[in-house]
Design goal:
The protein is α/β, with parallel strands linked by helices. The strands form five sheets. The protein has a seven-stranded mixed beta sheet, with helices on both faces. A hairpin with a 4-residue loop joins strand 3 and strand 4. It is globular, with a radius of gyration of 22 Å.
């Protein structure tokens, strides 16, 4: 795969200050497909200085001009969808169809929403005798994950640019090639030098340096709750704003009277997508005791369609593979019933895990409480709606979820009782304008749409 041997800083590709590199591995065949520089604190400092220098002019750029440049970025990403999809397949292992339909195409849609919002958002309003101004917060440090490498970049960078902020991007070390393609699109779109900067590197080095840097006004991070907590502590010490999109353990609640077959099949598909490497995946399937056995049988039949290497790709690396296999083993050891799949590797090469269904999972089990981040579904039995609410809310997470019922009104009534940031009602479709983010330890702040744009703004009031 094509890889740059430098950092994109101040509108050009510059040699890295250090000499260390990061190997990029294809998780499907375990072969090295490229390498990128391992950025240092000095590289991060150069990028932050470039962003600070560019900030005054970019913040003063009229929203209509920022909107036009975001539209150009959307178009550049659109022209590169096939190359982006091929790159995501190579460095993440996503099946080609998923890579094209989701990983490469969704970011184009999201960039387009911010091109429109930048030109229509009310950055100023009258409130009694005051004029309230919404101004860019400043330089943003964006630290993005590997599971949706381009989508998460666009979900941070596009609203930051729409708000008038400048950005230093530190992508995940497992998927840096996709980030380099994004930087190429930024350059081709004509976004001014220094407005977007890219530093590849390891989290404990480049990521930490970015979070700690005094020139960064806001840190936007997506990843594990443990790392998010550390970033929050670092930012808090400097009274620096954060936006954190963290882990999830989302409940898929199937109420009596719902279309059981559809709810189970869609639920299985939701978890198997992206090999289960989705923070908002509905990994806990809650079924009423009267329909539980039927749901288990439906889940077993549904998961059989997901063949590793075909409809389900590998996990991102060997460490993640072993972690997920360990969770499956622990679940069985704690009393869960293995209905399908299991901890043994399905292929000799590649970081694959068998799509797995664990039944008879109870709330106290580790697999019911901790984020597995793999193709594993936990079926849980409930007695009545109050019991279902208690189980659904009975984790430290609250990112997403789903409710299935005989009608939307019944599902909405249940969803109102869920402590979570986003709930799909009877298979509701994804909305790129709807706010995405969590309750509890699933994070702070929101991404996407106008709520995502608001994260990058600060408020000033003028009194008359």
């Amino acid at each position: 795969m094509k890889a740059h041997d430098g950092m994109y800083i101040g509108g050009r590709w510059r040699p890295a200050i250090g000499t260390d590199t990061i190997a990029v591995v294809n998780p499907a065949d375990e072969q090295v497909i490229g390498e990128v520089p391992a950025g240092t604190a000095e590289d991060v400092d150069a990028a932050v200085r470039a962003a600070r220098e560019a900030f005054p002019a970019w913040a003063a750029t009229p929203p209509a001009e920022r909107a036009a440049l975001l539209g150009a970025l959307r178009d550049e990403l659109g022209r590169r969808t096939e190359e982006i999809a091929e790159t995501v397949t190579a460095e993440l292992g996503a099946p080609p169809a998923l890579a094209l339909a989701v990983h490469a195409s969704l970011p184009v849609v999201v960039a387009g929403t911010y091109a429109e919002l930048a030109g229509s958002y009310a950055f100023e309003e009258k409130l009694g005798t005051s004029t309230v101004l919404l101004e860019p917060v400043g330089v943003v440090g964006a630290i993005t994950p590997w599971n949706y490498p381009l989508h998460q970049i666009v979900a941070k960078v596009a609203p930051a640019l729409a708000a008038g902020c400048t950005v230093v991007l530190k992508p995940a070390e497992d998927t840096p090639l996709t980030a380099q393609l994004f930087a190429e699109a930024v350059d081709a779109a004509g976004i001014p030098a220094g407005v977007v900067n890219l530093v590849t590197g390891l989290g404990p080095v480049a990521g930490q340096a970015l979070a700690e840097h005094e020139g960064v006004d806001l840190v936007s991070f997506t990843g594990s709750t443990a790392v998010g907590s550390r970033i929050g502590a670092v930012a808090g010490a400097a009274v620096k704003r954060v936006a954190l999109e963290l882990g999830g353990k989302s409940a898929n609640v199937i109420l009596p009277g719902a279309d059981l077959a559809r709810a189970v099949n869609v639920g299985i598909a939701n978890v198997m997508s992206n090999s289960g490497q989705t923070c908002s995946a509905w990994t806990r399937m809650l079924v009423h005791r009267d329909h539980y056995d039927e749901a288990v049988a439906l889940a077993e039949a549904a998961v059989a369609k997901y063949v590793p290497g075909e409809r389900v790709g590998p996990l991102v690396n060997a460490r993640q593979q072993e972690r997920v296999r360990g969770f499956i083993e622990q679940g069985v050891a704690e009393g869960a019933r293995l209905v399908a799949g299991g901890p043994d590797a399905p292929r000799e090469t590649g970081y694959y895990v068998r799509p797995t269904v664990l039944a008879d999972v109870t709330p106290g089990m580790t697999v019911a409480q901790e984020e597995i981040f793999g193709p594993v579904v936990c079926l849980m039995r409930y007695e009545d709606e109050d019991d279902a609410v208690a189980i659904a809310n009975g984790t430290v997470y609250g990112l997403a979820g789903a409710v299935w019922a005989a009608d939307d009104a019944e599902a909405v009534a249940f969803a109102r009782r869920m402590d979570t940031g986003q709930v799909d009602i009877n298979g509701g479709r994804f909305n790129p304008l709807a706010p995405f983010g969590g309750y509890k330890r699933s994070g702070v702040g929101r991404e996407l749409g106008p709520h995502g744009l608001a994260e990058y703004l600060q408020t000033k009031s003028l009194q008359f």
